[in-house]
Amino acid sequence: xxxxxxxxxxxxxxxxxxxxxxxxxxxxxxxxxxxxxxxxxxxxxxxxxxxxxxxxxxxxxxxxxxxxxxxxxxxxxxxxxxxxxxxxxxxxxxxxxxxxxxxxxxxxxxxxxxxxxxxxxxxxxxxxxxxxxxxxxxxxxxxxxxxxxxxxxxxxxxxxxxxxxxx
Length: 167
Ligand code: FES
Description:
Layout: H1 8-35, H2 37-40, E1 49-54, E2 63-73, E3 76-89, E4 92-96, E5 107-109, E6 119-121, E7 126-128, E8 146-152, E9 155-162
The protein binds FE2/S2 (inorganic) cluster.
FE2/S2 (inorganic) cluster (FES) is lined by residues 100, 102-103, 105, 121, 123-124, 126, 139-140.
């Protein structure tokens, strides 16, 4: 008889440990999968959002273009509406974020009659040049962000926000 014979007690221990481990893994896997699900989702940060703005209608006068996209925040999905100030500068299309770089109010084009060629933030009288550069001496300490732009079938598409490259 071999010296390495498995006793009945050892056999039961191995079998119960194996079956118990298998059952525990079967119960834990769905929970772990649920807990880390947002991490496993593919991100759409680089995606462009199609707007209803026709490229041909964009002029040198900034217009407010609003757009809606689905925002995923962990397990919560919601439709978010955002906007951009869009105009043509030569052949280039410029899309600026309307979010003031002071405290986050919304800036408007030419709403300050004293400065009809600038963006104006009414919260604290912040001003920006047409290219988004903040006007020295007003509260904002940085230029407006810009959106990446693209075209699809004659319509404007907006990508992610990046730091202003026009100012
Ligand atoms: S939030 Fe725009 S100037 Fe203060």
